[in-house]
Amino acid sequence: MEPIPVLEFDSVCFSYPHEKNRILDESSFRLYQGERAGIIGDNGCGKSTILKLMLAIYKPQKGKINLFGKPVSWSNYYSNIGYVGDPGYNTEQLGLPDDIKVNEALYLMAKLYDRCGKPHKIFDYEKKLGLTELGKRNIGNLSTGERKRLMMCLALSKYPSLVILDEPIDGLDANIKPNAEQVIKEVIEDQSTTILYISHNRMDLDEVTHKLYRLYQGKLSLESQPQFEVTVSDEQNKKLYDRRKTGQVQKILHGLLDSEVSDFQIHIKRV
Asked: pTM of the entire structure?
């Protein structure tokens, strides 16, 4: 029996009112548990529209969208989804009132998860994302980047089954970006978590995704990704790295060159 997709777009069509061209034109894809998929495309091509359709903010004119095997509904699956994207200019997307303080919001969510017996990393991510120093500030007074950090903490700390990343690093201060990237890496490395990562930067997606789709003129097409076999050997260790992504090969080499190994060989073969 074929497994049920975590996320499925089946021949979806969508266009905005009074616009002739379709944002999505018979677009289909499936994402199964543990898969990591990316969607790339130029600004304005409709990547964010896919998210709004998936979260039932918009409805398709044709086709179907299923989450966890059932028609999409944001309210039904909120606890299973972690979304990090543009927090907008108000706090409604966080589901929190403007006048609640950051530390109060984190404490309340942690108590809720504790009461439900749901594991979480709220206080761990609070420190990593620099939210501790924002604790006494009202959420309504946070900058866009600060709201995104709070969104990331609340969305990713609850061990979601499906993680949706929409340009998650954009708008963050330079001193926070490394920690935010580390938090995202921790989530991505959980083999049971399903990831949908949307970005305009292909290198970001090549590093972390199993498959990559390009959205162009309403069509989603599967892109080919470079594959490399990297063999590293020295007197003490022999390791074989199979990596699909150019970025991961670069990271392997960076780590080796920074290590204390002085006599080793590296062989890279594109496959």
From this structure: 0.77
